[in-house]
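Need residues for this backbone.
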C-alpha cells in the first residue's frame, strides 16, 4: 500500500484539499488504500456505500471496523435501521454537507465506496428534487410493474419524460418508479430536476481495476472470512429485529437493505430453506456479476475524471 502511495506521492501532495474519490469493484482494496491516503493527506473518509448506511449490518457489508474508524474519521455510516428508507437525495444532501465541512476545516475529503450511483452523483454534483417519498404512489407503480412488467412501466416513463428515459436503465424498476413519483408530485419532468452543481474544489480520482481472476479469488476468500466472523449470526439477529417490529421474514427480505450482496441467501440459510454451501455458491456467482457491473460503471467515471488507474490488487 505504501508503495502505491509513494508512486503517486507528488500527485498526492497537490491533491491536498481536493475531493478525492477512490473507486473500483468490491474487494479491490478501496478501504485499505483510503486509510493510507488519509494518513498522508490529513483526510477524512466519506462513505459512498448504500449498505453502510444501515446499522446492524456490519460483517456482510464489510463495513469499516471500529479500529479503522478510530484510525481515520469516517462519515455517513450507520444512519438508518434496516427497516427504514434511505434515498439518493438524502445521501446527496448529507454527503455535500459533510464534504463542505471537511474542506472548511482544512482537511481532505476522501469519497470511498462501491455504490456507483452515489459516487457519480457526488462527483458530478447532482441536484435532486425536494420530493419526499410517497409510499402510496410507489406502491401503485410497483403493483403496475408487477402486473404488466418492467418494460411497460418504463414505457409510462418514456411517454411522460423521453429525456429521462434516455438516461435511466429500464431494468432499474425502483429508479423508474421514483422518476414517475416525482413527475406526479411536481408536475414537471424528472429530467428537469437533474441539475448539476460543480464543486468549488478540484476532483481527483483513483480507480482500482485489478485483474479479474485475482479479484474473484479475493472476493471468495473474503466471503469465507465473513462467514467465519459470524455473518450468519448477524443475519439471524436481523431477522429477529425485523420480527420484533412485526415484519415476517418474507416481508423483510423485500426491503432495500436486504438486497445487499449475500444477505437474502444467508437469510434463507438462517430460515432452514437453503444449505450453507448452496448459499456460498450463489453468493459467489452474484458477487462476480456485481464486480463486472461495477467495473463497467466505474470505467466511465475514471475516464471522465482522468483517474490514476491501478491494475493490481492492493
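Answer:
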Amino acid at each position: 500500500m505504501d508503495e502505491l502511495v509513494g508512486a503517486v506521492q507528488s500527485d498526492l501532495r497537490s491533491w491536498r484539499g481536493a475531493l478525492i474519490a477512490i473507486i473500483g469493484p468490491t474487494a479491490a482494496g478501496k478501504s485499505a488504500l483510503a486509510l493510507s491516503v488519509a494518513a498522508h493527506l490529513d483526510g477524512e473518509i466519506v462513505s459512498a456505500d448504500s449498505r453502510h448506511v444501515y446499522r446492524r449490518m456490519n460483517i456482510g457489508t464489510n463495513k469499516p471496523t471500529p479500529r479503522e474508524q478510530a484510525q481515520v474519521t469516517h462519515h455517513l455510516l450507520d444512519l438508518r435501521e434496516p427497516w427504514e428508507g434511505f434515498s439518493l437525495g438524502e445521501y446527496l444532501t448529507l454527503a455535500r454537507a459533510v464534504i463542505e465541512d471537511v474542506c472548511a476545516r482544512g482537511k481532505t475529503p476522501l469519497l470511498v465506496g462501491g455504490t456507483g450511483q452515489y459516487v457519480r452523483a457526488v462527483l458530478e454534483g447532482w441536484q435532486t428534487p425536494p420530493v419526499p417519498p410517497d409510499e402510496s404512489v410507489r406502491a401503485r407503480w410497483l403493483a403496475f410493474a408487477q402486473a404488466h412488467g418492467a418494460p411497460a412501466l418504463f414505457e409510462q416513463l418514456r411517454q411522460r419524460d423521453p429525456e429521462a428515459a434516455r438516461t435511466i436503465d429500464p431494468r432499474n424498476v425502483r429508479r423508474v418508479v421514483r422518476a414517475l413519483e416525482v413527475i406526479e408530485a411536481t408536475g414537471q419532468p424528472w429530467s428537469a430536476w437533474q441539475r448539476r452543481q460543480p464543486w468549488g474544489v478540484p476532483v481527483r480520482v483513483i480507480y482500482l481495476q485489478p485483474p479479474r481472476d485475482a479479484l474473484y479469488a479475493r472476493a471468495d476468500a473474503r466471503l469465507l472470512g465473513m462467514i467465519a466472523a459470524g455473518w450468519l449470526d448477524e443475519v439471524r439477529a436481523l431477522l429477529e429485529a425485523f420480527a420484533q417490529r412485526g415484519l415476517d421474514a418474507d416481508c423483510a427480505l423485500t426491503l432495500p437493505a436486504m438486497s445487499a450482496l449475500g444477505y437474502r441467501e444467508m437469510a434463507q440459510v438462517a430460515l432452514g430453506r437453503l444449505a450453507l454451501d448452496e448459499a456460498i455458491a450463489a453468493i459467489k456467482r452474484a458477487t462476480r456479476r456485481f464486480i463486472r457491473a461495477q467495473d463497467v460503471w466505474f470505467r466511465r467515471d475514471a475516464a471522465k475524471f482522468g483517474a490514476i488507474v491501478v491494475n493490481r490488487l492492493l
